[in-house]
What we know:
This protein is of the alpha+beta class. The protein contains 11 helices and 13 strands.
Amino acid sequence: MKIAVLYGGVSKEREVSISSSKGIMEALKQNGHDVIGIDFHPNQLDEIINLQVDIVFIGLHGKFGEDGSIQGLLDMLNIPYVGSGVMASALAMDKFKAKQLFQTENIPVAKGNKYRMTKQTNIEAIIDDIHAHFTVPFVIKPNREGSTLGLTIVIEQAQTKAAIEKAIKSDEFILVEQFIKGKELTVPVMGKINEEQALPIIEIIPKNELYDYESKYAAGGSEHIIPARISEELTEKIKQYAITAHQVLGCETYSRADFLLSDDGIPYILEVNTLPGMTPTSLFPDSAKKAKISYAEMIEHFIQLTVR
């Protein structure tokens, strides 16, 4: 097939997208497809509008890639693409709305609240409200951003204002959540609609104190233990939570759900990634490899699922 891979983009995750898409394009070529790469920019839509391809593989991350924007454009152009549609992409990108949906399915979520920060917002009033409802440590992060960009763990109340100012560089909506100490876990999900399966759960041990941008993407930034060192019973419960989260958002083909397993054994879902990273250090390919699915096989499986 003739397949276009959209990469790059204008979000803060541009470099990650380029790395992901390089692997995707190599795998598609290895599988015998005719591949063209497009460095996507929202000011240069002619390349997309005039596309003559069988299918698009979206290798973008963050704004305009994972939020439903590019999916909406491709839908209007009637061009098939790999992955989730407009609604699921937008919902997953909005962490607060996604959490509300997860709660309807009884998936544990951290206590949290969303605040809108505009030029008219009284930041001191927001700070007072946060301090009234959250005890340190708590987390402040952009509501619509990926790769832990703009995230701060507030350990003293005096840090709150700086944490808000950092978060609003990425989004006018900030999310405040009670900090949960525990194991970082992630669960890749793939398959046909209503027949999704979870791949082996990964336990992540970051080299830095926080599983931050560097830990995620730098070589040696984190250690992946596959399968995670948890009981069979807990493994099955978390896998089912990941599949349920994928389905309640309306995701398609593949996604990856991130969890924090608290010290008292409760798996709190953090978010669902509709376009998880596919770089050499990424989690989804690592889990697939443990399930005896090679990188090229995994990419081809996504294509075939989309075609069907």
